[in-house]
C-alpha cells in the first residue's frame, strides 16, 4: 500500500513561507522548512541525474544498434555504458534514500514529524486563554441550593462506585451501577440513533489496532505517551474511535460521488493520561477507560470546512436536545492539535465549578491524515487520484455527558431528573436517593 508524508512536499516547495508562518503560530521553530527544501533539492537532483544517465545510455545503445559492426561498437562503448549503469544505480539509491514518501528517509521524517498547516481563520495565541468564543446556547440553571460535584451526587445515589473500581483496577476507573449504568447506555443509544438520522453509517470497529494503523492517523504523535499497548503483539488499544474509522479506507481510491462518507461508532477508549498527573483525579472527567460516540467524515477538499460546520452542528444538536447549556470555542493556533487545521471545542456548563468544560472536539484535518493513510478519491476518469479531507468529532463523550446531566439536573432532595429525550431509553424519569 502506497503511503505518503503528512505534510505535502508540493506545498512546501510552492509556498514555504506559509509553512513557516503556520509553524511560528504554533510556537514551533520554522527552520525545518529550510532543511526540507535542501533535502528535496538533493532528491530532485538525484532523480535528474538518473534520467540524464538513462537517456545517455539509451542513446549509446541506439548507436550500437545502428553501427555496421555492432560487436566492435559494443566493445568500444562498453566502458561508457558500464559507467552510466553505475551512475544510475548510485543516484537511484540516493533518490530512494531521500524520497519524501520513503520510510526511513530524513526528508520523510521531517514531513511526518511536523504538524498540519493551520487554516487562516484559526485565531492567534499560545494556549487556551486565547481561544475565541464563537457562540453560546442555553442559560446555566439557577439552583437555590449549593450545587454538588457529580462524584458526590453519584456516590450518594449509589450509581457511581469509585472505591470498588479502584479495588479492581486502580485509580482513574469507575463502576457504574443500576440506574447509572442504564443512563450511560441510554446516552450511547440516543447518540447513535441521532447519528443515523443524520446520515452517519454505524460501525463497530476493532478496539485493538496495529502500529501502522496508529501511525497512519497521526496518533503516534498526538497520543505517543498516552496509549495502552500489547508489546508482544504490537497492538494498541484505541485512544479514540477516530483511529479505526479514519483508517477504514486506508490505501483505497474512492469516487467523488461517494463523498462525503460519514461514520459513527460507539466504543470504549483507552488512554494512559500520562501527561495529566494530578489533574481531575476525582470523578469521571479524566479516566483511563471511557466511552464515546465518535463521528468521522471523509470529504472532498472544496467542502471540508463546510463539513466542519455541519459536524459541529451535529454534536451541538445533542446538547440542545438534552437541555444542557454549552458554548463553542474556536481553538487558537497554540492550542490546536497536531493533526488539525482547525478545531472547535464544545464546552458544557458544570454548576459545581461555575464554568464550562470540554465535551466534544470537532476538527478538520484537511489532507493531513489522508496522505498518511493513502485515502484518495478520483473526480473522474481523466483526473489523477488526490487525497480526501478527514474530519472527526465526539458526538458525544458519554462520561462527560453523564457528568453534565448529574450536575445540571440535580434537585434539592438529592435526586436527578432524567432529560425527557432519554426517558424512552432509560424507562425512568428520575434517579432518587
Shape: elongated
| CATH topology group of the largest domain | BirA Bifunctional Protein, domain 2
- Which stretches are poorly predicted, pLDDT < 50 over at least 5 residues? none
Quote the beta fraction. 15-25%
Key features of this structure:
Helix Hairpins, BirA Bifunctional Protein, domain 2, alpha+beta, eight-stranded mixed β-sheet
Give a short synopsis of this structure.
By secondary structure, this protein is of the alpha+beta class. It has helices at 9-14, 16-25, 32-66, 70-98, 106-113, 150-157, 162-169, 179-197, 211-216, 219-222, 242-247, 304-322, 368-373, 398-408, 423-426, and strands spanning 132-137, 160-161, 175-176, 201-202, 208-210, 229-230, 235-237, 253-255, 261-270, 289-299, 326-330, 342-350, 355-364, 376-378, 386-387, 389-397, 416-417, 430-431.
Describe the model:
This protein folds into two domains: 9-113, Serine-tRNA synthetase, tRNA binding domain (Helix Hairpins); 128-431, BirA Bifunctional Protein, domain 2 (2-Layer Sandwich), CATH 3.30.930. It is 41% helix and 20% strand. The protein is built from 15 helices and 18 strands. Strands 1-11-12-13-16-10-9-4 form an eight-stranded mixed β-sheet. The chain has a three-stranded antiparallel β-sheet with strand order 5-7-6. Helix 3 packs antiparallel against helix 5 and helix 6 (150-157) packs across helix 14. The longest helix has 35 residues, at 32-66. It is elongated and about 105 Å long.
